[in-house]
Amino acid sequence: MESACAAGALTLSVVVGHDSPDALDALRILVVKALHGAGEIVAKAPAISDDLAARLAASGPGARQGVSVLIAPVSGLREGRPALGVWRHCLRGAPPGHEPLQVIFVYLTPLRTGNTVLPSWARRALEDGKVVYRLKNATSVRDALFAMGLA
């Protein structure tokens, strides 16, 4: 597994995995990456991961093109913290009725802002079939950032 952060208005943590973890393990990895450098709030990572797993399980059937976008407000967070996970093979343990998952975008937002809207750059990229195709075929963080238009 390879991971890194990309600079920008927000710091985007990126994980590119070659093996396929369970969907819950993937969420745990992404939450820890998103919270990296956020201080003591990282202690909430297990609870946030469980909350996101519940949101994924409760979401409507089918992740669009194998992509799941999960947004969660987090008490004590000072700024939005996005993380992108890309796996070469489908994740195990995706909820029944869902399309197999290969890409998960997690966006943690401060609770006080009530902002549960995906940043426009992420929304545009994750709704573009060509971008999703390039993400699914990314073999490195650089490839993933390039696919998202961030490199």
Main-sheet strand order equals 1-2-4-5-3
Biggest sheet, in brief?
Answer: 5 strands, mixed
What is the CA-CA span between the terminal residues? 19 Å
Structural class: alpha/beta
Estimated helix fraction: 25-40%
Low-confidence stretches at least 5 residues in length (pLDDT < 50)?
A: 1-5
- Fold-level CATH name: Mannitol-specific EII, Chain A
Ordered list of secondary-structure elements with their pairings:
Elements: E1 2-6, E2 12-17, H1 23-35, H2 45-58, E3 67-74, E4 81-87, E5 103-110, H3 120-126, H4 129-136, H5 141-147
Parallel strand pairs: 2-4, 3-5
Antiparallel strand pairs: 1-2, 4-5
Helix pairs in contact: 1-2
Considering the chains and any ligands shown, give keywords for the structure.
single chain, 151 residues, alpha/beta, Mannitol-specific EII, Chain A, 5 helices, 23% strand, globular, disordered N terminus
Characterise the protein shown here.
It is a single chain. A five-stranded mixed sheet has the order 1-2-4-5-3, sandwiched between helices. The protein is globular and about 35 Å long. With about 150 residues, it is α/β, with parallel strands linked by helices. The chain is built from five helices and five strands; from the N terminus they run ββααβββααα. It starts with a strand and ends with a helix. The chain has a single domain, classed as Mannitol-specific EII, Chain A.
